[in-house]
From TrEMBL:
Keywords: Membrane, Transmembrane, Transmembrane helix, Ubiquinone
InterPro entries from the UniProt entry: ABC1_dom, Kinase-like_dom_sf, UbiB_kinase
Matches recorded under PANTHER family: CHAPERONE-ACTIVITY OF BC1 COMPLEX CABC1 -RELATED, PROTEIN ACTIVITY OF BC1 COMPLEX KINASE 7, CHLOROPLASTIC
Name of this protein: Ubiquinone biosynthesis protein
Length: 647
């Protein structure tokens, strides 16, 4: 019995190794062993069927050939099993037993949450829109009613959906004003987490008791939001700090809800035209990426350090983080004494209000246009009036980043607005967004001209309608705004509302023009041209030095008839590997077809010496060629299935 078991195991291992080698790819252990076990089970019946009729009448090598053929047929069956399994269930698509059990638990929790969110949407009258009905956005009353239902559903959905609504409230380029106004009413209203839970988080991030790092730690939070709460503390050195602690257990909840948001977005895009037009899928992906960054306080600490490093000398301060004490769920930063702008602006006079508004606007424009790292959510709660005078920006969980090309395009956009040049504004705008395949540039230029005549003429103080009209103009021409540029628009729209509430009548466009005049060079100005020419000359100088010698060599080669041009095809190793793979597949296909055709011709032949009363030598060779043809064809098919899955 033991010998039989050992033999069976050895045969399974041999078939598994042979199947993998002949197909030239690695497969999962389970499916490989199943295919090998199938081959072992078939060896006996196939051998009996082939060798049985001739075993008593033939001797020598004839039965051995049929036994070899039986093993080949069994191996072929194992390879067919692997090929079908790869086509139906690609390798890696099914998790292991432990992973499957964990996935079942996660799916059960997600399903319960999904059903709860679905019931919330249906209860607020949003169910028909998930089933494919396009929203009625014709009448203002219909839009307002739908926007109120959406806001109430998001509010009831919890932290992730509240955050989603807050982000959508800043996308006036995508949503009608009624939706923007309703979604702005969403606020984080949560009870503080108990001190015992907060202490466990702080201890886990610090790697030791709270008392080892902090001389004192206020147990009552200064403020509590859906993701984190803020406590006051004092370090052993005597420095007073603010400690931002992530609420316990919030990360798994957010991850589960983000998965639901992605699924709802895919469903809406698949079933409704409005979701495809707005690009709900891209919005959901951008929101998920931003929220995951917000859950990692190390990102916020890096954002604070980056803004502080690029804003030295600015009139607006930023708190300094303590990276050594901070972690994924804990952020320790400098404490700035003051009051939020929302509560402290009442004690300011008109001149002080205008001075604060100017300082905040100039700091934000400097971050956007010059530094490339900027605060993306400058609402009144994130602006502090310092006790000793001055202003500070708080909460760097949402930060935008711009590369040099986007900053240059924004500078050109601002300069064109200052010169009242609609064509220049249109060109700069098309540099900021992906250029669509079809766009009426003349109509866009006329729309921009009407926009400028409506909002940017002397005597008119821009208000929130200016940004709303700009967003509508962008949306009307189907310009897809990248997330980086959308963050700029969001920050400017937010700061416009903040400064209008702080200093009514404050002319944002006038101040932006003055900032550009002081801090930016005028496009085409003499100084800018001189600088650009000098930079280009420095870059071209090595080329100019080599140019005469290169020209002399080319002319000499042409005169002597030795001038030639070398073109190297497939210089990239990846291209060579790709073409080699294609050639191998083509060669295997040709060989498989040739072997198959020869097998059919030989099997149809009745001539030649007989190895059995019913089988000739040519037919036996045909059977073997048929097996070879099937093996080669299976190898090509499995490679195709694997490549398609990896794409």
């Amino acid at each position: 019995m033991i010998a039989f078991a050992v033999t069976a195991v050895m045969m399974v291992a041999a078939f598994a190794l042979a199947a993998r080698r002949l197909l030239g790819l690695r497969f999962g252990t389970v499916r490989t062993l199943l295919g090998a076990a199938l081959a072992v089970l078939l060896v006996g019946p196939v051998s009996q069927a082939l060798v049985g009729p001739v075993a008593g009448n033939q001797a020598g090598i004839t039965p051995l050939w049929f036994i070899i053929l039986a093993f080949a047929c069994s191996l072929l069956a194992s390879m067919v099993f692997l090929a079908i399994a790869e086509a139906l269930v690609p390798t890696g698509s099914i998790p292991g037993p432990l992973e499957a059990l964990a996935a079942i638990r996660r799916r059960a929790g997600r399903s319960r949450r999904y059903l709860r969110i679905t019931r919330i949407l249906i209860r607020h009258g949003l169910g028909p829109y998930l089933r494919g009905r396009d929203p009625d956005l014709g009448a203002p009353s219909s839009r307002l009613r739908l926007a109120r239902s959406l806001r109430e559903a998001l509010d009831e959905g919890g932290v992730t959906f509240v955050k989603l609504g807050q982000i959508l409230s800043t996308r006036a380029d995508l949503l009608p004003p009624e939706f923007v106004g309703e979604l702005r009413l969403l606020q984080d209203r949560v009870e503080p987490a108990p001190w015992e839970e907060i202490e466990r988080v702080v201890t886990g991030e610090l790697g030791g008791p709270v008392e080892e790092v902090f001389a004192s730690f206020e147990r009552q939070p200064l403020a509590a939001a859906s993701i984190a709460q803020v406590h006051l503390a004092r370090l052993r050195s005597g420095e007073e700090v603010v400690v931002k602690v992530q609420r316990p257990g919030i990360a798994p909840v957010v991850e589960r809800d983000l998965d639901i948001v992605a699924r709802l977005a895919r469903t809406a895009e698949r079933r409704t035209r409005w979701a495809r037009g707005v690009g709900v899928g891209d919005l959901a992906r951008g929101f998920a990426e931003a929220l995951r960054e917000e859950l990692d306080f190390r990102v916020e600490a890096a954002n604070m350090a980056a803004v502080a490093a690029t804003s030295k000398g600015s009139a607006v301060r930023s708190p300094v983080p303590h990276p050594r004490l901070s972690g994924r769920r804990l952020l320790v930063m400098e404490r700035l004494n003051g009051v939020p702008l929302a509560t402290g602006q009442a004690g300011l006079g008109p001149a002080e209000r205008e001075e604060v508004a100017r300082a905040v606007l100039h700091a934000l424009l400097e971050q956007i246009l010059l530094n490339g790292v900027f605060h993306a959510d400058p609402h009144p709660g994130n602006i502090m009036l310092l006790s000793g005078g001055g202003v500070a920006l708080l909460d760097y969980g949402s930060v935008g980043r711009l590369d040099g090309a986007l900053r240059a395009a924004l500078q050109r956009l601002l300069a064109a607005l200052d010169l009242a040049d609609p064509a220049g504004v249109g060109d700069a705008l098309l540099e900021l967004v992906p250029r669509p395949d079809e766009i009426d540039e003349r109509e866009l230029e006329r729309e921009i001209g009407r926009f400028m005549a409506r909002h940017l003429v002397p005597g008119i103080v821009p208000d929130s309608r200016m940004f709303a009209d700009l967003f509508r103009l962008v949306f009307a021409h189907r310009l897809s705004v990248p997330p980086e540029v959308a963050a700029v628009f969001r920050a400017l729209g937010t700061i416009e509302g903040t400064l209008t509430g702080l200093a009514p009548g404050f002319d944002i466009v006038k101040e932006a023009r003055e900032f550009a005049g002081r801090r930016l060079s005028a496009p085409g100005g003499r100084e800018e041209i001189r600088t650009a020419v000098a930079q280009e000359a420095v870059r071209l100088l090595p080329l100019l030095r080599r140019l005469p010698r290169s020209v002399d060599r080319i002319v000499g080669a042409a005169e002597s008839g030795r001038f030639s041009v070398n073109v190297r095809l497939f210089a990239d190793a990846r291209d060579r590997r790709h073409m080699t793979g294609l050639l191998h597949q083509a060669l295997l296909t040709v060989l498989a077809a040739t072997a198959g055709i020869m097998a059919v011709l030989l099997l149809d032949s009745e001539r030649g010496p007989r190895v059995t009363p019913t089988v000739t030598l040519y037919q036996l060779i045909g059977y073997n060629l048929l097996v070879v043809s099937a093996i080669l064809a299976l190898r090509v098919l499995v490679a195709i299935f694997r490549e398609r899955r990896e794409e």
